[in-house]
Every structure is written in structure tokens, then in C-alpha cells.
Write a structure and sequence with these properties.
Chain lengths: ~180, ~325
């Protein structure tokens, strides 16, 4: 977890490139979106809130980019801080009391958890297209097997098989033994 | 067994998605590793969401670098305050107080008058509409740098202004006095005292927006108009006494004292795209972009704090 404790040269190059040319900020986004989403998602309460807050984090990071000074603090830590503030604002809007504790930043154990999820998300992105669609429709769009079967013009049995194969592939990819 | 596993997994996934208790499935050795993965997948960001956000960021960065500064009317900044008043009294006040120079007047009969004034290096637009006197609360605040705050403050009082705070040395590097004009607009008149005064970052006249939620507002302006945060002071308890963003080449300052919506002209090269972007960011539509007889194309939105934005592409130069 070297990139957690101290900023890497990669981080530094990434941020300096984006500062020189904001159009390159998407490279920061590409590298960190899964991780920030994973951090936000377990605290946000709903998928819609997690998407709104993640959006906010990257919009704010882009806005604050000119002021970011490289001091060896990893980019991830900077983004987590913005995310924690965005979550706190979200909670305030939801009517949580102002003196509730602010969202905690990830400790080492959560870093490992988040890293594991990021690896998993990347594996999902690389699944065969039909398996990926099933995962997306089930877990992101929250659709029933029947619904997915109708949308993909397959039998329910076939969709369940695809779902099992997708999860088996992910399990193998993650190096977890069944 | 395989068939059964397919069905057992599906039941377990339904429980995971519905956030029902799926702990029993963890005792099933075939199922447990798959159910753990399923639980993590609840947090999988959808591909569509990621692509949409990426496209938004891309659009914004191309807009901040190219669009916003590309098409500003000659002599103007990207953003120009538009002050609504019932008559020409504010123009007189500005001419007497700040030696403002009138650069343009368009009479529109019963629809009132559009007037443009230059103060130092900054432009102000005034909409003089006898009916606007009946619209409460649309007043604005400005930070104005002058060479001699005491002399200008005296002129403001003589022109009908009311003191909200006499000139004094302030800890933020300026000597300033605060005036309320006869229409309720606030003018924070200042002369820099120290090299680190805000003057170095500001024009002669900088609009000062008082908002209910400064951080959220700055976020909106970033998403809607590509505003870039330049300073943000937060004190314990989360209050933000001072913040500043920049849109194109125009600064906007923020505070939380007595919020009131105002109005702004913003010059862009693609008013349709910026209008759409403002709506996506949370603005309310007032009127979609349309070509005007004067040659400008302009659309109108209202932001979450109630301020109006006139999103315009200037008329082609003849």
C-alpha cells in the first residue's frame, strides 16, 4: 500500500500534467474514480447519493486543481478528504445533526478493503460482455432475474447461469478459493 | 449440484441486493465466497455512470480552457454584474461617487433602459425598469478599490448613500468603508494598505455574492460555468467568512452576510451548451437561448440561490 502512505512520483506527474492542461484531469479521474466511489458508497446510504457525491468530489477536485500544491501527500488522500467533506454536507442536507462526527477517513484496514473492491470492479469491467451486462443489471440497476431475462431475450435459467459464471470468474480473478 | 448452486446463489443474491440478512448463506462453503463477492458488487459503480461523469469533466475542462474566454465582448470581462433598479438614480449615484463613465444607453420605451457604465477597469450593466421597484430583494454587493477610500466614502454619503461602517483599517490588508446605496445595494469601498491586499487578485469592481451555502454555491458555479475556486477560508464550525472563485477572467467573492440574489451577464461562445450545462448543474430554466434583434444570442437561468444568469454570445463585430 505504498501509494497510501506517501504520494508516488506517478501521482505527482499526474497532478502536474493536469495543472498544466486541465483537459488531462480525466486521467486523475480514470485512476481514482473506482476507489473514491467505493469509499463513498459504503457511507452514502443509496446508489443515487453515492453517484451524486462522487460527482461532486471530482467536480470540486477539478475546481481546486490550480490550488493543489504537491507536498508528497498522495492524491488519494486529497480526494478522500474532499469526499469526507462532501459526505458531511450530504448528511447535513439529510438533516443529520451538525455535531455528528464527520465521516472518517479510511484507515489501513479499510484501504485494503477499498483496494480489494477496486480490483474487483476492474475485473467486472473485463468480464465477457454478456456476463458484465448481467452483473450491471442485477447490482447497479437492481433488476430481477425475470427482468434481465426479458431485456436480454434469454431464459431465466440462462441468466442465472450467466450470473453464476460471472461470479465464478470474479472469484477466480480475485484469487479466492471456493 | 451445479443446478442447485445456480438457484441457491440467485436466492442469496436477491437477499444481498435487498439488504436482507444473508449470513446463513455464509455457512454454505460453495456459496460463501460468491456471496462475499456479491456483497462487494453492491458498491460497483455502473459503467454508464462512470462514462457520464467522465464526459461531464471532459466538457468542463475543454470549456474552462477554451470556451469561456474565447468570446467576450470587447472591453468586458467574462462576467458582468447586472443591477436592476427602477430609475436612473443608481447611475447618478455611481457617476457622483466613483466617477463612473457611461458607455452605452439603450432606451426600450415602456420596457425601461439598459445602461452600461465603466468604473476603473470594470463594467457594470444597469437595467432601469420602473416595474423592478416592485421586485423585492434583488440587490447586489460589490467590492470596489479606489485610491482614497475616505474621499470616495464622503462622496457616496453626499450622493445619498448610507453608512454601514465608516472607513477603518481592516485586518485583511485594506482600509475600507461600507455603503448602502439608495436602492439597497452594498458597496464595500477599499484602498489597499498592504502588498498582500486582495487588490492584486481583483479588478476595480468585483461582485460579492452572499449565499446561504457558499460551498454548495461554489460547486454549482464550477459545474455550471467552469468557475475555478481560488480561495476558501473555513473557520471552525464550518462557516466560510470569505471565498473567491474565478469564471474566465472575472473574479467573484463570496460571503454569507444577508444573502440576496442578483443578476449577471456571462459571455460565452456557445450559449446553448453552457445553458444545458447550467441546467445539468441544477439551475432552473427561465428562457432557452434565442437570437435577439441586436445580434446577440442569449438564454436565461436562475441558480439555486435565486441569482439570474444571462448566458450570451456577443453580437458579431460589424
Amino acid at each position: 500500500m505504498g501509494d497510501v502512505a506517501t504520494g508516488t512520483d506517478d501521482d505527482r506527474a499526474l497532478i502536474e500534467t493536469a495543472q498544466a492542461d486541465p483537459a488531462r484531469f480525466v486521467e486523475v479521474y480514470d485512476r481514482y474514480v473506482d476507489r473514491i466511489y467505493a469509499y463513498v458508497s459504503r457511507r452514502a446510504g443509496s446508489r443515487a447519493a453515492a453517484e451524486d457525491i462522487t460527482s461532486d468530489v471530482f467536480q470540486q477536485a477539478l475546481a481546486a486543481l490550480p490550488r493543489f500544491e504537491w507536498r508528497g501527500v498522495p492524491l488519494a488522500a486529497w480526494l478522500y478528504q474532499i469526499a469526507a467533506n462532501a459526505l458531511a454536507n450530504h448528511w447535513r442536507r439529510q438533516g443529520r445533526e451538525a455535531d455528528d462526527p464527520p465521516p472518517d477517513l479510511p484507515d489501513e484496514r479499510e484501504h485494503e478493503d477499498l483496494q480489494r473492491r477496486v480490483s474487483l470492479f476492474q475485473l467486472v469491467d473485463r468480464l465477457p460482455e454478456l456476463q458484465r451486462r448481467v452483473i450491471e443489471m442485477r447490482f447497479v440497476e437492481d433488476r430481477s432475474i425475470r427482468d434481465v431475462a426479458a431485456a436480454l431475450d434469454r431464459s431465466e435459467g440462462a441468466i442465472k447461469q450467466l450470473q453464476l459464471r460471472a461470479l465464478e470468474n470474479l472469484r477466480k480473478g480475485m484469487g479466492i478459493h471456493g | 449440484m451445479a443446478d442447485e448452486l445456480v438457484d441457491r446463489l440467485d436466492v442469496a443474491i436477491d437477499a444481498v441486493i435487498a439488504r436482507r440478512d444473508a449470513t446463513a448463506t455464509l455457512r454454505d462453503p460453495d456459496l460463501a465466497p460468491l456471496v462475499r463477492i456479491a456483497a462487494d458488487l453492491r458498491h460497483y459503480p455502473g459503467a454508464e455512470f462512470k462514462a457520464r461523469l467522465r464526459a461531464q469533466l471532459e466538457r468542463r475542462t475543454t470549456m474552462t480552457t477554451a470556451e469561456l474566454t474565447a468570446n467576450v465582448r470587447e472591453g468586458f470581462a467574462t462576467v458582468t454584474p447586472y443591477v436592476w433598479v427602477p430609475d436612473r438614480g443608481l447611475a447618478d449615484f455611481l457617476i457622483k461617487t466613483f466617477d463612473a463613465v457611461q458607455t452605452r444607453v439603450d432606451e426600450h420605451g415602456q420596457h425601461g433602459t439598459h445602461r452600461e457604465l465603466r468604473v476603473g477597469d470594470s463594467m457594470l450593466m444597469l437595467g432601469e425598469d420602473p416595474r423592478s421597484g416592485t421586485v423585492p430583494g434583488r440587490r447586489m454587493a460589490f467590492h470596489v478599490f479606489v485610491d482614497d477610500v475616505d474621499a470616495v466614502f464622503a462622496k457616496a454619503l453626499a450622493a445619498g448613500g448610507e453608512s454601514m461602517g465608516d472607513p477603518a483599517d481592516r485586518p485583511y490588508g485594506e482600509r475600507s468603508g461600507f455603503i448602502k446605496d439608495p436602492y439597497g445595494n452594498h458597496w464595500y469601498i477599499a484602498t489597499p494598505l498592504a502588498p498582500w491586499s486582495l487588490k492584486r487578485a481583483l479588478r476595480s469592481v468585483t461582485p460579492y455574492l452572499h449565499a446561504h451555502d457558499v460551498r454548495a454555491y461554489m460547486g454549482f458555479l464550477a459545474r455550471a460555468f467552469g468557475a475555478v475556486e481560488e480561495e476558501l477560508h473555513e473557520v471552525s464550525g464550518g462557516a466560510i467568512p470569505y471565498a473567491r472563485s474565478r469564471i474566465g477572467d472575472a473574479a467573484i467573492e463570496f460571503g454569507t452576510h444577508d444573502p440576496s440574489p442578483g443578476a449577471f451577464f456571462i459571455y460565452v461562445s456557445d450559449p446553448d451548451a453552457v445553458y444545458e450545462q447550467a441546467l445539468t448543474a441544477g439551475a432552473k430554466p427561465l428562457s432557452p437561448p434565442a437570437d435577439q434583434p441586436s445580434g446577440i444570442r442569449i438564454g436565461f437561468v436562475e441558480d439555486p440561490e435565486g441569482t439570474h444568469w444571462y448566458i450570451a454570445r456577443p453580437a458579431p463585430v460589424a
